[in-house]
Amino acid sequence: MKTFRENAVSPVVGVMLMLVVTIIIAAVVSGFAGGLMGEGQQGGPTLAMDAKVINMGSWTGSGFFATVTSVSEPIATHDLRIVTSWTAANGGNPVPGGTTITANNRSNIAVLFNQSALIGTYVAPFGTGLGTGNGTETISGVDSKRDFSAPGQQFGNYSLMTGTTLTAFPCGAYDADSIGGSLSGTEGYGVPNSGRFAYSSGVAGTDAVTAVLGPGWEKLRIGDTVSFRMIYIPTGSVIFNKEIPVTEG
Question: pTM of the full predicted structure?
Fold first, then answer.
């Protein structure tokens, strides 16, 4: 009886097949990694900021403040979306808050009052320094009010550069003089002059810090944090993301 022997694949052919498979896998991995690197390079500019949320318990000194410490290139604020969120641990009854800011979102229009008079409506957060066309805020007008009315200081008009500062005060702090009052459990900011903007008065509109942090921000206390994200709209990438602790100064 004739027998047939089934020969295995030649060792040389086997080695060649393994080499081909290895080369293909390496090419795929290299291309995928290259794609990821390309996406990272196109994800938007890089940005670093020193950001603070301050609640002094009174108008004076409170607000939102951020200074650009480094940036890869000037960033036009009309290409940015800011998202804030927080939960205030308010007497065992947590209060959520936050808002979204874009240059075209009318919810971040700040209504500023000077005593009982309307100063105007402007787009917060306001910019000062490089990129704004206005080196510093100006102090002018009735009662020496702070004036952020310059077009270049409105969010959406200025660019972020190293040294640019973003600012949002509570309404009563736009007067340069000291305004008294302290937080209470039910009324928010207490303001002795009833003609001035008070959070509990139901006055229509909002102020700059409310426009940036959302209604009820005055309930924030030390120990609370504000989540602050800045998104580069052309790519949808988050270029700044920080949990900002609430401080008293």
Answer: 0.71
DSSP 165: E
Query: Has residue 93 got a pLDDT over 80?
Result: no
Q: Domain limits of the chain?
A: 8-42, 47-247
The span from the CA of 55 to the CA of 74, in Å, is: 30
pLDDT for 52-78, tens place per residue? Answer: 999 876 767 788 999 999 999 999 999
Q: Which helix H or strand E contains 18, and what residues bound it?
A: helix 11-41
Query: Which H or E run includes 22?
Result: helix 11-41
Amino acid identity, residue 205?
A: G
What are the distances in angstroms from CA 152 to CA 94, 128, 164, 178, 183?
A: 38, 9, 12, 27, 34
Amino acid identity at 1: M
Three-point CA angle 248, 82, 225, nearest 5° = 30
| Cβ contact 155:125 at 8 Å | yes
Q: Which residue has the tokens 């480094």?
A: 70
